[in-house]
Structures are given as C-alpha cells and as structure tokens.
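task queued by scheduler; priority normal; single chain, no ligands, no partner chains; default sampling; output format set to structure tokens
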Amino acid sequence: MISVVPITQSGHKNKFWQRFTSYRFAENEYLVPLAAAEISKAVHAMPMAFVRQENRFMLVGLLSLTPGKNRFVDQAGKWLGKYVPACFRGYPFGVARMADKDDLILCVDENAGLISDTSGEPIFDDQGNLSGPVQEIMTFLSRIRKNREKTDQAVAALADAGLMAPWPPDAEKGLVHHIEGLYKVDEAKLNSLGDEVFLGLRRSRSLVVAYAQLLSMENIHVFDALAKIRDRVKETRMDTGFLNDDMISFD
C-alpha cells in the first residue's frame, strides 16, 4: 500500500534513502500524466491521449491497452521503451502543493521499501537542509509539476474550443482494448477553426499539445512491439537517472 507523507525534519532527519533499481513499482500503471515539457520525447515513444478527471481534461501517456498492465515494464522490472516519463524517475519522491499556498513540498512513499534507518544516502545534511541529491530531485519534480499545471491550462483551452473527441483505440484496425474514457483532438474541427480561435490556441501553446497528441496516435501499435521485446530480450538498458533533463521550454 502506498503511504505518501511530507518530508519533515521531525520525521526524516536521521533517515536514509536508496535509489530504485527496478521499475516494478510502475508495473500496474497503464496511464501516466505527462507535462508538455516531455512531449518532444514522449511523442516518439508512446500514444498520448486525454482523460477527464472531474471537470477537466489532462494529458496522459498510454502505457497499455489493458488496465492494470504497464507494457513498458518487463518481468525483471526493466523499462523497454524509448522514454521514461518524468514522474517515474523521481521515485520514491513526489511533490504536492500546500493547501491555499503556492509552495510545493517534497513527499515520499514510505512503503516503497527505499527509506531506511541505517543505510543509503541521507535525506538531510548535517546542517539540517535537504541533502544535495534530494534537493536536486525536489528541483526536478517541482519543474515538472509546475510545467504540468501550465500543460493543464493548454489542454483546457483545447477543450474550451470544442476539440475533444472520444478515442476508442479499438477503432484502429486489429486492436483489442479494455480502456474507457480516452479522448483525442478532433482533427477535422481543429482544421476548421476560425482564425481568432486558432491564434488564441497558438498563443496559449495549446497547438503544441494538440499536434503532438495527433502524431503520437501512430504509436498505438507499440504494444505489439513491446510484447515481442518482452519475449526475446533479456537485458535492456536500465535508466534510473533522476535528472535526465530532456525537457523542452514551455514557459
């Protein structure tokens, strides 16, 4: 069971953390939130879609056509794809926004098996500050979180323009899936927008998201390729670098 708690002096001053060596923690994830800063990499690696949460849409990467199965993670916990989404690279850490404040706080999953009383890298340094590596992770995850919030605004603009359309992947020839609630950009409506609305989407950076989502749909057959890789590849590059800065500017 996940137990995410804020990092505090009182709770973690004398604690240590260990870097993950397997992506098994993500093996049941079939959708992953994406920030626009990740698009330049993700568009070549996985299908992207939109899902509706409450009254808003969000951009996600599709990791499987079956709920509860991440086809990018093999039986040994190795990542098989071309790109590892940013939110996985900071594990077991994450960031959350404080209630009624703009500040982000660093959190950790204490049930990840990577927090120790005796061994690993210290969470805090001798001066009581976050240790260097942990501070780097905090900076990285904060950048992603803030970029994702800007991405949500860009996606909202697409929705407000009436460009969201249901996307059942089984409409693609030969595919069988069990995932509901996926959306795509309605390309016909996008191409027929008036100049004022189109220019507004350009100013909000929404067009970057829209065109990337449409292009990424060609990756829907990646799951067949991943199945073949899982069957034959025994050794795959294991990349757990927190700070692989593959982000593009989206300010």
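post-processing summary
- The mean pLDDT is 88.
- The chain is about 30% helix and 15% strand.
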